[in-house]
Write a structure and sequence with these properties.
The chain folds into three domains: 88 residues; 94 residues, Alpha-Beta Plaits, CATH 3.30.70.1820; 63 residues, Rec A Protein, domain 2. The strands form two sheets. The chain has a five-stranded antiparallel β-sheet with strand order 2-3-1-5-4. The protein is rod-shaped. With 288 residues, it is of the alpha+beta class. Helix content is 62%, strand content 15%. Keywords: Coiled coil. It comes from Sinocyclocheilus grahami.
């Protein structure tokens, strides 16, 4: 039977042998892992180099892009500055144009007022030059039978209006246009009466007779107004139609074109035909 000392010795030797074996296994494992570590280290170094290259490449590309962007931005800035200058110029031009238009509008308004005033003066002068002119409508063409127009019209006026003597006429003629066909209305006679009192006497006779006839045909005798005045007076035609034959209503047109209406409530003067129409409708209704 072995002794206790011998047992301890054997245990110690076993442990020593185990440690030796462990060291040998570790050395063997380290030796076997060296290629993997080397490969990993090599890969790490290569990845670092690639990363560095990528960084440098990106830095270069970013710098290039920055230069391009700066160049584009500078170009855009130049364009914007040019547009700003253009807009400022346009703004100044528009302001100047607006001021000019305002002045022109005032000038045009002034000229329009002057034109209106001069037009009215021209119409007035034309009316004054015709104040002793009369027109005769409805005289068939050719009835003169070779007589002078002035002599023919004087005899016509004396016969139709039953004048005491032949009126003195300065001139007389038919309307200055081509002779119409037989089926068309005849041209009017235009005559200028020499004396003012004769002119007034003729117009009184015309007003006092409801119907005028010559050679078996109805005729009309009226003052020779300027065409602008005739149009203005004609605008009251529908109003006069309403007022005609209304009991207690008297009306007439004053020169150049003012409608005077006298009725039970007083007297009204109208220069606007539309206003006169509204008044006639409200006061007297329409003729049916």
């Amino acid at each position: 039977m072995p002794s206790k000392k011998q047992g301890k010795k054997d245990v110690a030797e076993g442990e020593s042998a185990a440690e030796t074996a462990g060291s040998m296994e570790e050395a063997s494992s380290t030796a076997s892992n060296d290629p993997v570590l080397l490969a990993i280290e090599s890969l790490r170094l290569e990845l670092g180099k690639v990363t560095t290259d990528i960084k440098e490449s990106l830095k270069g590309e970013i710098a290039t892009l920055e230069r391009k962007i700066d160049a584009k931005f500078d170009a855009m800035q130049l364009i914007i500055n040019d547009h700003r200058t253009t807009l400022e110029h346009l703004e100044q031009t528009v302001t100047a144009s607006s001021d000019a238009v305002t002045k022109l509008q005032a000038h045009v308004k002034s000229l329009s007022e002057q034109v209106s005033e001069l037009t009215e003066k021209c119409i007035d002068l034309e009316g004054r030059s015709k104040r002793q002119n009369i027109r005769i409508a409805g005289i068939r063409e050719g009835l003169e039978n070779g007589q002078g127009a002035r002599e023919f019209v004087a005899k016509l006026l004396m016969e139709v209006l039953e004048l005491d003597e032949l009126p003195v006429l300065d001139r007389a003629h038919r309307a200055l246009r081509s002779r119409p066909e037989d089926s068309d209305p005849p041209r009017q006679f235009i005559a200028q009466v020499h004396h003012g009192h004769t002119m007034e006497n003729i117009m009184r006779k015309v007003s006092s007779q409801r119907k005028l006839t010559f050679n078996g045909r109805s005729i009309q005798i009226f003052r020779d107004y300027p065409s602008a005045v005739v149009k203005r007076r004609a605008a009251f035609a529908r109003v006069r139609q309403i007022l005609r034959d209304k009991p207690g209503v008297k009306f007439g047109i004053l020169y150049p074109a003012k409608l005077r209406v006298m009725y039970s409530e007083g007297e009204k003067l109208f220069t606007d035909a539309n206003e006169a129409w509204k008044f006639a409708i409200e006061q007297f209704g329409t003729n049916k």
